[in-house]
Amino acid sequence: MDGGKTRKAKIEVRNLTKRFGDLLVLDQISFDVGEGEFLSIVGPTGCGKTTFLNTLSKLIPSTAGDIFIDGEVADPKKHHLSFVFQEPTCLPWRTVRENVAYGMEVKRVPKAEMEKKLNQIMSLVGLADCADLYPNQISASMLQRIAVARAFAVNPDLLLMDEPYGQLDVKLRYYLEDELVRLWEQLKSTVIFVTHNIEEAVYVSERILILSNKPAKVKAEVKVDLPRPRSLIDPRLVEIRKEVTELIRWW
Ligand SMILES: Nc1ncnc2c1ncn2[C@@H]1O[C@H](COP(=O)(O)OP(=O)(O)OP(=O)(O)O)[C@@H](O)[C@H]1O
Ligand SMILES: [Mg+2]
What we know:
This protein is α/β, with parallel strands linked by helices. The protein has helices spanning 3-6, 49-56, 96-106, 111-124, 140-153, 170-187, 198-204, 235-249, and strands spanning 9-20, 23-34, 38-42, 64-69, 72-73, 81-84, 158-162, 191-194, 207-211, 218-223. It is 36% helix and 24% strand.
């Protein structure tokens, strides 16, 4: 894949700036995301990653700057943004399958189409066997898989993920990262994935933006031009991981 440069820009962020009172957190951030691209954002703790996703999704207002989707100013009424938070969010009174379906129901996806999509996604994320269980009957990683599946299911214009696997142990994370890449490959969503885990960013994404310490600016961009499936011990992957680590280390 060719990164965001030569592909048509799906998302254009221009001079995105956020202040909380006197505190400048995001300082004129600009970048594009290509249609169907998997972009990761890495940056030091507290640099403003969550603020960045919240302003992008318009959960909180920006101080200045613009966000365009398909060339139009981003509008939550017109464009569809999906969000996966660090803490999984599930409706306890709905089964696993009904939780995955929730976003599609809100979007009023026709029943036949919804069933087809649900079957596809439930098997892609390995939830088919627990479709009829309730959230209190399954593990934390299963809950996060529901949140990820639900976010992909609605064919969003942009899918934003804020460290979705940050709480999970390493082995599980590897497994879920593979699942995430599979979903993205099959459903071709445009994804912005925030993580402080450099290895994870290199493993899953096509391009990585590195944010500086607060106030956050885009400090560097690294392309990850490796074939999939990837291996964490591939010397080329290790090389890119080192490059990103160095870039984060030297503010
Ligand atoms: N509502 C708010 N009011 C005032 N300051 C805020 C608010 N939300 C965030 N901040 C400040 O903005 C800065 C960036 O916070 P943010 O949570 O976006 O960082 P982060 O990179 O996501 O951190 P972490 O790595 O811990 O997830 C911090 O200094 C934080 O205190
Ligand atoms: Mg955060």
